[in-house]
Design brief:
This protein is an alpha/beta fold and 539 residues long. Among the domains are: 124 residues, Diaminopimelate Epimerase, Chain A, domain 1, CATH 3.10.310; 184 residues, Metal-dependent hydrolases (TIM Barrel). It has 18 helices and 24 strands. The strands form five sheets. Strands 8-9-10-11-13-12 form a six-stranded mixed beta sheet, with helices on both faces. Strands 2-6-22-23-24 form a five-stranded mixed beta sheet, with no helix packed on it. Strands 17-18-19-20-21 form a five-stranded parallel beta sheet. The protein is globular and about 80 Å long.
């Protein structure tokens, strides 16, 4: 079936800049069998179209390429929808109340568990984490674990600690910390980084997810935000197998790209499924490996080269991996011709990834274009950006940090470092391919909010954070379309409206190029189109 889209603002994302985009804006777009067939004058397209063509009058609305998620946790986002939502909690009493209500509504017993998600100690009245003494007030018998909004920190009640076998004799794992009460070895219930995984491993087997509901919830949040390609970062083997099951059953309405953690589990996952899913089968493929090198800057676990302010003297966070282990991981990925994505929030972690990749490049004969990606890039320095440019490393920037935690970063790092979080302009000036992500479920997959953050650089308090890192709207739109497509080696099939590409489109009520910059985050997604078929329409 053919469709003509006309009588609206059409942003193709085919141009170098906004001026060229406006000069070459087509009057209409013709799609056929899920692909873009032609763009140009309406009269020319009408001449080429079949008599049975479906005419889609945009009525002045904006048509542009659908958004592409450069980094998120697709499966986790679905799972979070079944957890206790702590995102609106303003104090410990709120946390306790939400957990008690969740227990009551779900009729939970001590044979079951509670997993909560989304609290942020930075915005709790107590400015602290809800440790076991707090969580025990919700229940001392039912195991409870609550995940920080960053997913890099967590707290457990006494029952969860017992279930996980964590006590005074438990040592901190590599790349993680268990909190202890002052002047004792008694666990407080608080956990950081790899220690969080030990808590999750104990309770997740007791959680019974409604897979059908999870499948639906996984996709709904992305589709209503105009996203048609998503990432499942840090996939486990079970995650990959569930995604394959969804894909085979025809349940996926969007494209999902998996990146297993480069661990023993990830290596096994890749050996089982990597070859068969190196390209899309229907809507699923495996893109490469993921590695985590540090933690969260707002949680003060990101690995910095200079100390955090307002805490222990000389405290800089800490790494997840030793240099030699990271080097071998990268060598493995290169040997397998696999792309690798590295979580780097702190500049010390960024330096570790760059150095290891540089070294691996020098010591390999593999000269293929593998497009390594630094994920988050919160505090990456200009000297590091220079090195990234030389090795064609992609910068996937969590630019929403400017809004969500910009004020926190100013407090943690001071004005000089705080104003350089998410250094998008400096990266673009060096010719680095830059894209944006929301790290969902850490934040909602609202691409237009990321665009808004990148062009306005405004924090929650209304302060300007690093105004010199602001970019223009068109470059910001590139970051959520064509540049994100490039990361996935899909620049020839997605990311712009041009003949031969997939008809992955979004209709907005206003054009981001025509509204006041401060109003971009008020634009609504009216319709999301995947391969020419409407997969979301706003009521």
């Amino acid at each position: 079936m053919e469709q003509i889209f006309y009588n609206g603002k059409i942003i193709t994302m085919c141009a170098v800049d906004e001026a060229q985009e406006r000069r070459t804006e087509p009057e209409a777009v013709l799609i056929e069998d899920g692909k873009i067939k032609m763009t140009g004058k309406l009269s020319d397209i009408e001449e080429c179209a079949d008599a049975s063509v479906q005419r889609r009058n945009l009525e002045g609305k904006c048509l542009m390429p659908a958004f592409i998620d450069a980094h998120s946790h697709f499966v986790m986002n679905g799972q979070m929808s079944a957890m206790a939502d702590l995102s609106d909690c303003a104090c410990f009493d709120d946390v306790i109340s939400v957990l008690k209500k969740y227990i009551a509504v779900n009729n939970l017993t001590k044979k079951e568990v509670v997993l909560g998600f989304g609290y942020d100690h930075n915005f709790l009245k107590e400015y602290a984490h809800p440790d076991k003494r707090v969580l025990d007030q919700a229940s001392s018998e039912i195991p409870i674990v609550v995940l920080h909004i960053s997913a890099h920190l967590a707290c457990a009640n006494s029952a969860a600690l017992r279930l996980a076998g964590i006590d005074e004799n438990t040592s901190d794992p590599d790349g993680g910390i268990f909190g202890r009460y002052q002047n004792s070895r008694e666990p407080s219930g608080y956990a950081e980084e790899s220690a969080v995984g030990l808590l999750q491993a104990a309770i997740i087997p007791r959680i019974k997810f409604d897979i059908a509901s999870v499948m639906q919830n996984m996709q709904a949040e992305y589709l209503k935000n105009g996203v048609t390609t998503v990432q499942d970062g840090a996939s486990t083997q079970k995650d990959v197998e569930m995604l394959i099951q969804m894909n085979d059953a025809g349940c996926l309405k969007l494209d999902v790209i998996s990146y297993p953690l480069i661990t023993a589990d990830g290596e096994q996952t890749m050996s089982l499924y990597g070859k068969d899913y190196s390209d899309y089968r229907n809507h699923f493929k495996i893109g490469g490996y993921k590695v985590v090198l540090d933690g969260s800057p707002q949680g003060r676990s990101a690995w910095m080269s200079e100390p955090y302010l307002g805490g222990e003297p000389d405290y800089c966070g800490y790494p997840w991996l030793k240099d030699d282990i990271l080097y071998e991981y990268i060598r493995r990925a290169m040997h397998e011709n696999r792309q690798i994505l590295a979580h780097c929030n702190g500049d010390a972690a960024s330096g570790q990834f760059i150095a290891a990749y540089e070294s691996a490049l020098r010591n390999t004969d593999n000269k293929k274009d593998l497009r390594p990606v630094m994920i988050h890039c919160q505090t990456v320095r200009n000297d590091q950006l220079d090195r990234m440019a030389k090795i064609s490393m992609i910068a996937s920037v969590f630019v929403g940090h400017v809004w969500y935690w910009g004020d926190v970063h100013m407090r943690n790092f001071g004005a000089e470092r705080g104003n350089r979080i998410s250094p998008v302009k400096d990266a673009l000036d060096r010719g680095i391919c830059v894209n944006f992500h929301q790290d969902t479920p850490v934040t909602k997959p609202n691409m237009l909010h990321s665009v808004w953050c990148a062009v306005n650089r405004v924090s929650r308090s209304g302060c300007k954070i690093g105004e010199n890192q602001a970019i223009d709207v068109y470059d910001a739109l590139k970051a959520v379309t064509v540049n994100a497509a490039y990361q996935y080696f899909e620049e020839n099939t997605k990311g712009s409206i041009s003949a031969g590409k997939r008809a992955d489109l979004v209709i907005l009520d206003k054009s981001p190029l025509d509204v006041d910059k401060m109003e971009i985050n008020e634009i609504n997604v009216l319709e999301t189109i995947k391969d020419g078929e409407t997969v979301y329409r706003r009521n």
